[in-house]
Amino acid sequence: MKVESRTVRAIATTILWAALPMLLGQVTAQVARAAEKPNFVVIFCDDLGYGDLGCFGHPTIRTPNLDRMAVEGQKWTNFYVGACVCTPSRAALLTGRLPIRNGMMSAKRRVLFPDSKGGLPASEITIAESLKSVGYATAAVGKWHLGHLPEYLPTAHGFDSYWGIPYSNDMDAVRGFPNYAQTARKDANYFAPIEQYNVPIIEDTKVVERPANQHTITRRYTEKTIEFIRDHRDEPFFVYLAHNLPHIPLYAGKEHLGKSRRGIFGDVIEEIDSGVGKVLATLQELELDKNTLVVFTSDNGPWLPFHTHGGSAGLLREGKGTTFEGGMREPTLFWWPGTLKPGVRMEMGATMDLLPTFCTLAGATAPSDRTLDGYDLTPLLLGKTDKSPRDRLFYWREEQLYAVRVGPWKAHFITQGCYGIGPQRQEHETPELYHLGHDPSEKYDIAALHTEQIKELVAIAEEHRQSIERVENQLIKR
Amino acid sequence: MKVESRTVRAIATTILWAALPMLLGQVTAQVARAAEKPNFVVIFCDDLGYGDLGCFGHPTIRTPNLDRMAVEGQKWTNFYVGACVCTPSRAALLTGRLPIRNGMMSAKRRVLFPDSKGGLPASEITIAESLKSVGYATAAVGKWHLGHLPEYLPTAHGFDSYWGIPYSNDMDAVRGFPNYAQTARKDANYFAPIEQYNVPIIEDTKVVERPANQHTITRRYTEKTIEFIRDHRDEPFFVYLAHNLPHIPLYAGKEHLGKSRRGIFGDVIEEIDSGVGKVLATLQELELDKNTLVVFTSDNGPWLPFHTHGGSAGLLREGKGTTFEGGMREPTLFWWPGTLKPGVRMEMGATMDLLPTFCTLAGATAPSDRTLDGYDLTPLLLGKTDKSPRDRLFYWREEQLYAVRVGPWKAHFITQGCYGIGPQRQEHETPELYHLGHDPSEKYDIAALHTEQIKELVAIAEEHRQSIERVENQLIKR
Fold first, then answer.
1. Which of A110, A285, A327, B40 has a beta carbon 3.0–4.6 Å from A301's, enabling a disulfide?
2. Which of B55, B77, B449 sits opposite A59 (nearest CB)?
3. Do A354 and A328 sit in the same domain of this protein?
4. Domain edge (last residue) among B364, B390, B416
5. Looking at residue B30, what is its pLDDT?
6. Residue A29: is its pLDDT beyond 50?
7. Which of A56, A62, A332, A341 to mutate to test the interface with B (most CBs of B within 10 A)?
8. A contact residues 413-432, partner B, Cβ 8 Å cutoff
9. Is A31 within the bounds of a domain?
10. Using a CB-CB distance cutoff of 8 angstroms, which residues of chain B are in contact with residue A314?
């Protein structure tokens, strides 16, 4: 068939002109978004130890995706959580506030349980709410643990959607099954029947599966996250992917089961790592990587009484449930190609800093009508300074201030190991003093050599204690 | 001046033809070398712990060059030394044999001292001798500790040249100075006057400096190594750079002193790291990087009684002087761009494997008239297999077999911590049993659950013991 070439050219020109506004519009939108509203992906593990990733020194767990994230992004070696157990740590991340300020920390019940009637108060402002106010699409996928009643679920706290187990994966335990710790002690590859833990999966506010098939839970969380990213590729988004694992009971999908050298614990971490790889690959495929900040960390240190089913804090002391470094310092990665200068960051940071930092990056306003315990890390993240605005951390356990860190100095007012296995509780008239730069393992108490330092830390702790107003406790309601 | 253009062309042609054989010869030599004889650089530290590098998880020591080496090359997480203290470990590296086989290990004197009359026997064949036999230029720079009398020095063992302190940097101690451990306990930044340790620097066989200026020793070792590489760029070479540090007493050069967050110990590691960067940069500048295998490791684990002046084994148990993993597993890197597939290697390897491996790569013949304890890692290094020829390690301490590892299983026949601070010596009728894959920290003795495994390990250990012929002890001669 012969077509007049002039006609072809004319048609092409017409199409081009017709399409131009659309093409230009898209480009403009992308440029505007890149400059104004980055996406945020927070991948949050449960009971992952400081030493459990390859890039943080584990010898038998393979984490090539997280290792790559560390090299392409920033590996933070002094990054903390707001509490040494689940519920309060999650409250801290999402609100930028110490959980002692909003009733999410208790000496009587350390976390929320299936019979709990409390949860994160409606008056609290979460990262999701802050970002929503400036047009973000928001999703929570995975473990919530800030109240499983409808009024406390993610959809009541600024998330457009929720899909996950609303508390720990070892809750709703059914009688008549073998004791997990005892079985774990005997078999590093053991996994329990899923019927042993009758935990639900909730979609928004409705139970959609019970017991949750935990063998596939890590994969499904990753898939839900990727689905959300694909669905919201054209608008700014925030997705909070909170894995239930490696909290016990441990389960890995078929692709990973029995594959690691570290038993099922390693299989679990390798599956999480693989999921991280898929999330990053999706961002790259959609060309969103240059406009998305991905943060990887965990809620608290390794749960040590579970033998090889618990993780490792590496060279840090103790683990979950304690205010030693192993309980509250987490292996943390920030990834944002083209924006973050790759390398190791040894300055202090904490999950509570994410709220003010995300607000700045998104052009949102962080709450100003209440005390925030988070600092805006933007200047440090973007390389405008080498100094962190965070120079201190307050280590609360249950309802008491156990320790304080200022710069490299850490004073312990009370020390106590993990329940059942660690050292007994001890109150110190003269605090123990450690220099976390010289002595990251908290081995050498040098209080006797630095009385001035102690005085300063005691004063800072006292001032901080004075700033706390006690409020209604949410964890004891049932 | 006018010159006939034909004449110019004729001259140029003549020069070109005259130079051609030389040019071609050089190219041919380079091609042949690239295919046949790679260079070897071994950088060996002293008392560096498994957890002391950034890429092995240290939170406050910056090692960007070693981290880069880990990413561009291979990070080995199950790489061992042949003994848990200095002299025997070095003998093992250089001969590919357990020191119990050549009298370089003793229960009475654990290492050589300035009053020692013994050393590595002339009958032993070192890596340097093996490589020399196929035309390599060889140099030893740094700590020797295999005999300081002329007949034992590097120049008597296959090295063309030597420059360094012939034993540990805390020897030849002069009376009247403060106790190092006590001072170190008080001050993480302390360094002793160099006069406190009257150690010599020997060039080939002559003392050229005494006391050695240890403030500049790390820098000078690096410089000597680079000088050797430049001088021998056109022939195959082997250089053994054995740093005296971070063995105590600690010293750092001006550029690094006070710069790390880890006190002087960190300053020292950061200076070593910087030196590694300079060596790699030199190889790249000279275009030798594609033809040079660089290996970085250390002689044994951290020396724990020295407070913050000792290193950290990370998540591994105990340190120097012990047969726990912290005593004998080292942070090890292999770098050979274009030849080694980058990544993490979790298979077993050991310093004793370097001799047979280098021999294969260099086309030299490894000694066949004696028992070698090293395995040829070439197929694994080059990616031809994922299985290490080394599936076992024998952990000797002094003159007894304390433990054996086969695959992931490790049986302890005798356990004992570091002298003075670790657990007391204990012989076990039923060995303790650990699974180093599931439990790299040797926390959970599972002997009671695996009696078959114990039997197998006991039999392998017994067979190994039978293979040892006791010889004249070199360490007790004085």
1. A327
2. B77
3. yes
4. B390
5. 44
6. no
7. A56
8. none
9. no
10. 51, 57, 314-315
**Mean residue pLDDT across chain A:** 94
Q: Which of B348, B374, B390 is the last residue of a domain?
A: B390
Handedness of CA A322, A326, A329, A334 (dihedral sign): negative
Q: Can B232 be counted among the known catalytic residues?
A: no
Mean pLDDT of the region B437-463: 98
Q: Looking at residue B240, which CATH number applies to its domain?
A: 3.40.720.10
How close is the nearest chain B Cα to the Cα of A219, in Å?
23
Domain-embedded: residue B19: no
**What total number of domains does chain B contain?**
2
Residue A466: which residues within 8 A CB-CB, separation 6 or more? none
Averaged over B57-63, what is the pLDDT? 98
| SS3 per-residue string spanning A362-418 | HCCCCCCCCCCCCCCCHHHHCCCCCCCCCCEEEEEECCEEEEEEECCEEEEEEECCC
AA identity, residue B286: L
Q: Which residues of B touch A344 (CB under 8 A)?
A: 54, 62, 64, 67
CA separation (Å) from B344 to A448, B77, B350? 43, 7, 15
Q: Are residues A317 and A418 in the same domain?
A: no
Output the CA–CA distances (angstroms, integers) from residue A414 to A110, A403, A440, in the order listed. Answer: 17, 7, 18
Residues of A within 8 A of B344 (CB-CB) are 54, 62, 64, 67
- Distances A289 to A42, A351, A360, A425 between C-alpha atoms, Å: 14, 22, 19, 47
Whether residue A243 is found in the same domain as residue A382: yes
Distance to chain B for A412, nearest Cα, Å: 19
Within this chain, do residues B409 and B325 fall inside the same structural domain, yes or no? Answer: no
Residue A439 to residue B59, Cβ atoms within 8 A: no
Residues A439-474: tens digit of each pLDDT: 999 999 999 999 999 999 999 999 999 999 989 999
Tell me how close the Cα of B263 comes to any Cα of chain A, in angstroms. 5
Active site residues of A: 86, 145
Which chain B residue has the Cα nearest residue A330?
Answer: B59
What ipTM was estimated for this complex?
A: 0.92
Together in a domain, B368 and B434:
no
CB interface of B with A, residues 277-316, below 8 Å: 307-308, 312-315
- CB-nearest to A308 from B262, B343, B444 is B444
Residue linked to tokens 């139970």: A207
Q: Kindly report, residue by residue over A92-147, the tens digit of the pLDDT.
A: 999 999 999 999 999 999 999 999 999 999 999 999 999 999 999 999 999 999 99
- CATH at residue B434: 3.30.1120.10
- Same domain assignment for residues B193 and B251: yes
Could you tell me which chain B residue has the CA closest to the CA of A447? B186
Please give the pLDDT value at position A36.
75
Which residues of chain A make contact with B308, given a CB cutoff of 8 A?
A: 435, 438-439, 444
Q: Among all residues of chain B, which has the CA nearest to that of A332?
A: B59
pLDDT at A3: 45
**Phi first, then psi: what are they for A427, rounded to 5°?**
-95, 140
Question: What radius of gyration, in Å, describes the C-alpha atoms of chain B?
Answer: 23
Over residues B183-205, the pLDDT tens digits come to 999 999 999 999 999 999 999 99
Residues A226 and A171 occupy one common structural domain: yes
Q: What was the pLDDT predicted at B420?
A: 79
B438 to A54: CB separation less than 8 angstroms, yes or no: no
**What domain range is A363 assigned to?**
37-387
CA distance B326 to B324: 5
Identify whether residues B252 and B401 lie together within a single domain. no
Q: Mind telling me how many Å the CA of B29 is from chain A's nearest CA?
A: 37
Answer whether residue B11 is part of any domain: no
Residues of chain A contacting B314 with CB distance shorter than 8 Å: 51, 57, 314-315
Q: Is residue A457 in some structural domain?
A: yes
From the list A93, A91, A82, the residue with the least C-alpha distance to A401 is: A82
- Residue B175 in contact with partner chain A when CB distance is under 8 A: no
Residue B214 touches chain A, beta carbons under 8 Å: no
